[in-house]
Design a protein that fits this description.
With 525 residues, the chain is α/β, with parallel strands linked by helices. 39% of the residues lie in helices and 17% in strands. It folds into 3 domains: 167 residues, Ribosomal Protein S5, domain 2, CATH 3.30.230.10; 218 residues, P-loop containing nucleotide triphosphate hydrolases (Rossmann fold, 3-Layer(aba) Sandwich); 112 residues, Helicase, Ruva Protein, domain 3 (Orthogonal Bundle), CATH 1.10.8. It starts with a strand and ends with a helix. 46% of the residues are buried. It binds adenosine-5'-triphosphate and magnesium ion (MG). Magnesium ion (MG) binds next to helix 9.
């Protein structure tokens, strides 16, 4: 007797459908499992047998051959337990052999008592099952909300094997889990608000520009001026996640098993704040079975590197390639996994170890050489990738003691950010249409933001008036800008113009962009 049941495996953030073939023969008792299983999959034999007996079925003593196809892909973890037991019980007749399981997928680990245990990566596996044309997926109860975020496939939450068998034998009905109402959940988010930050008008303006163009930003200043506070408020002024973005970000979290039980889609933009003692692998991703790192967990959100100079240089330098490519590829003998990592980098730092270098009233207690050494922990290429650098001065007593009743809330700033991004999209589409060219894009399918414009993109989309050209030329010659520095100023100037809904970059846009890039000359020259 042969039965064929569908399940799914995981590689990177991609699921793939696995066919579990169970062949059962009489005469003697045996259990053979093939198809590149890892140790956890091999141990399924023991879990399946005990779970079966504790569910109230005598485990049929037959010669079983279980094949997980495609046989050339590694199978990991415990996700195939349920499918294997369903296959066995179908061979043995405990599940009606006439029941049609040809469009069903079974995911889940079994406990010895026959309960279904949650697994990681359910969202990715459900999406793969749907893409392969399957119509139903049975998942552990704790994973049902997450699975239901995939549209176009019915998700059944299952507590135990007993419940599942009764359902498959048409003795007990299960109702599909309702998909989450994405829009409704979005409207329920509350985040720390920008209006909590007093003073720091320049820095707030810089954050708004960064949010509008997706620019990386470096905040420098003495202790207690609101750097960390401001960074934490960046998600509140970014546009809300789109459904597609939420799906992608949730997939990354799903494969790491970090999604809280019962949680469906992640509806907040991630804000990840890795500690400087973190290893390069935890930050960028890696491992024998490749796992996403912090930068991928920050996909479509913010990566906040507080106390940037404290991060070892080889760790920060590991960010250079992902910052350009918006994806990390990890190659292993059995294949390679690509994890998306499109994030905004916000870094914060003091200008020196004591924190008061350059302070107007408080003396810096560092030795001169120490300041330079501290600052040199940030490499030139890393500094180059921060489009905007801004200094947060100490607050005056008036600023800290009197709340500003007119302080703008995050909602107001976010409206402007959304408007600027929409304007930029229209502007770029108009250029494409006029030139009769397809959109100029980078490797990702995400809508292009100004921060991502490469030299060809800058040439195409950043038009300046004559005064702006002259100003940029003067700055290039007098400030000793590099070609990279020139491009960076143009990208930021483009965003500033978008905030004003101006098609053409004018001199005052360039002037502000230059101002937002003056700190490397102050501290690193
Ligand atoms: N601009 C500000 N407006 C309101 N409160 C502030 C401001 N700056 C600092 N504070 C208060 O000081 C605390 C510390 O601020 P924050 O952590 O943002 O400082 P920081 O600049 O990151 O300092 P450090 O360099 O030590 O990390 C905040 O929790 C807040 O109570
Ligand atoms: Mg801080």
């Amino acid at each position: 007797m042969l039965s064929k049941i569908y399940s799914a495996g995981l590689y990177g953030i991609d699921g793939f459908v696995v066919t579990v073939e169970v062949d059962a023969r009489e005469n003697f008792a045996a259990f053979e499992l093939v198809g590149l299983p890892d140790m956890a999959v091999k141990e399924a034999k023991e879990r399946v047998r005990t779970a079966c007996e504790n569910t109230g079925y005598l485990f049929p003593e037959l010669a079983y051959m279980v094949n997980l196809a495609p046989a050339d892909r590694r199978k990991e973890g415990t996700v195939f337990d349920v499918a294997i037991l369903v296959g066995i019980l179908r061979c043995a007749g405990a599940i009606d052999p006439r029941s049609d399981l040809s469009d069903s997928c079974f995911l889940g680990e079994l406990s010895l008592s026959g309960e279904l245990r949650p697994i990681r990566g359910v969202l990715c596996m459900c999406a793969a099952a749907r893409d392969a044309g399957l119509r139903r997926v049975y998942v552990p109860r704790e994973n049902a909300a997450e699975a239901a975020a995939v549209r176009g496939i019915d998700v059944y939450a299952v507590g135990s094997m007993r419940e599942l068998i009764a359902h498959l034998n048409a003795k007990e009905a299960l109702t599909p889990t309702c998909p989450p109402d994405f829009e409704e959940e979005l409207s329920s988010i509350s985040l720390p608000d920008l209006s909590d930050v007093r003073g720091q008008a320049m820095a707030k303006r810089a954050m708004e520009i960064a949010a509008a163009g997706g620019h990386n930003i470096l905040l420098i200043g003495p202790p207690g001026t609101g750097k960390s506070m401001l960074a934490k408020r960046l998600p509140s002024i970014l546009p809300p996640l789109t459904f597609e973005e939420a799906l992608q970000t949730t997939k990354v979290h799903s494969v790491t098993g970090l999604l809280p039980a019962g949680e469906s889609l992640l509806i907040r933009r991630p804000f990840r704040s890795p500690h400087h003692t973190m290893s390069a692998v935890s930050l960028v991703g890696g491992g024998i079975n490749p796992m996403p790192g912090e930068i991928s967990l920050a996909h479509n959100g913010v990566l906040f590197m507080d106390e940037l100079p404290e991060f070892p240089k080889q760790v920060t330098d590991g960010l250079r390639q992902p910052l350009e490519d918006h994806a990390v590829t990890i190659t292993r003998a059995n294949g390679r996994a690509t994890f998306p990592c499109s994030f905004m980098l916000v870094a914060a730092m003091n200008p020196c170890r004591c924190g008061y270098f350059g302070h107007p009233t408080r003396p810096c207690t560092c030795r001169r050489g120490d300041v330079a050494r501290y600052l040199s922990n940030i490499s030139g290429p890393m500094l180059d990738r921060m489009d905007i650098q801004i200094e947060l001065p100490s607050l005056t007593y008036e600023e800290i003691s009197t709340p500003d009743p007119d302080a703008e809330t995050s909602a107001v700033v976010r409206e402007r950010v959304i408007k600027a991004r929409a304007f930029a999209a229209r502007r770029m589409a108009a250029v494409d249409a006029a030139q009769g060219e397809p959109p100029h894009n980078d490797a990702t399918d995400a809508p292009l933001c100004n921060a991502r414009l490469d030299p060809a993109g800058i040439h195409r989309y950043c038009r300046m008036d004559a005064d702006a050209v002259q100003l940029l030329k003067d700055a290039y010659e007098n400030l000793g800008l590099s070609a990279r520095g020139h491009d960076r100023i143009l990208r930021v100037a483009r965003t500033i113009a978008d905030l004003e809904e101006s098609d053409i970059i004018a001199a005052h846009h360039v002037a502000e962009a230059i101002q937002l890039r003056s700190l490397d000359r102050k501290y690193w020259s």
